[in-house]
Amino acid sequence: xxTGLSGIFNNGVAGMLAFSEGMGALSDNISNQNTxxxxxxxxxxxxxxxxxxxxxxxxxxxxxxxxxxTQGVRPTTRQLVDVQGAVQITNxxxxxxxxxxxxxxxxxxxxxxxxxxxxxxxRAGDMSxxxxxxxxxxxxxxxxxxxxxxxxxxxxxxxxxxxxxxxLVPVQVSSQDVFPGLxxxxxxxxxxxxxxxxxxxxxxxxxxxxxxxxxxxxLTFSNPVVNPGTDTTWDVSIIDSLGVTQxxxxxxxxxxxGQLPAGSTLTVTDNGNTFTIDIEDVAMLGDAASTQTQxxxxxxxxxxxxAGAFEGLIFREDGVIYGRYTGGATQPLYRIPLATxxxxxxxxxxxxxxxxxxxxxxxxxxxSSGEAEFELFGxxxxxxxxxxxxxxNVDLADSFSQMIIVQRAYSSAATVxxxxxxxxxxxxxxxx
Length: 432
Fold this sequence. Notes:
Helices cover 14% and strands 42% of the residues. By secondary structure, it is mainly beta. The strands form nine sheets. Strands 5, 6, 9, 10, 19, 20 and 21 form a seven-stranded antiparallel β-sheet that branches.
């Protein structure tokens, strides 16, 4: 491959330019070694050929192309988005890290309307509340909102990934709706009431009404009817949530051992609220001449949750975000999706450790990332790590080693230019 004196200059200068770009990539990596979510870049080098021609001495199937005017080296910089960085625990409430493939989705809001008008993707999960007006949203350091699916408890049974970014909304960390409460439908009571000598005994119970308010009742056993050697029957009534004693609504019969039949229940109605109490563990024991007026309650529990105001968010490793409310209630509000790409290394890097989708719309065969596809956390693809961030994937020792290699290569290319200059001077001197 013959090369003229000008070609030597071209080769040397191309080498210096290529290696300076490689040094620039290394300096970016080193300066961002502590940047959360940063993905290192590397520079690849390939030969530049100015012209090719057919070797006229060879024909037919054995014909070859002969390269002329080699023009040096061309640098190509690529980012290693698909290389995992170390996960570092921070213990900050809103920090999240991805262990595995995929990226978070962030929405860019219109500053005038607050509407999401663009999307970017990132592995940087160091987030905090971002206040707009009276509301606060979970956002990254660039002020872009973390996007997620809105879900309900029913969606937990059949989790489905979003079809597109149109199914996503910003995660709000304030001003959520009040939890309306869940009414009690079932309860369990374990207690001991005295033997047949007592006239009336009571035990307190509680339930959540249809408005999410906790109500208290007194369950009263009274007016025993004794069948010696067989069973003892008690009337059951309640002192309702208004303090009014209601008429007896049912009877229960204890056997000779003071036990109720398996599966015994009471159906209690109070001010339009009805729930069922499992009383299988209520027993009649003690002195038949007792004058005790209170049952000994061993335990009582009920379902239902009281109404409450929003207090904050709770994150789960499967990407589900719960709302936490006064009164102890929680309910699912969002699910964080995992955005995946066919070629994540072809994403377009933008400021703030974020990336945009790239496509080969002009058909030139340029590598593209492809459109985002959405998956769910919790499978083999990726896991969500709570109160943690993913650090950069820069290997500092390797970066310094590469820096030495690139610096020597740059010096060699500079020597080529210097030698070509000396050769040019020799030719010039011959012409004098």
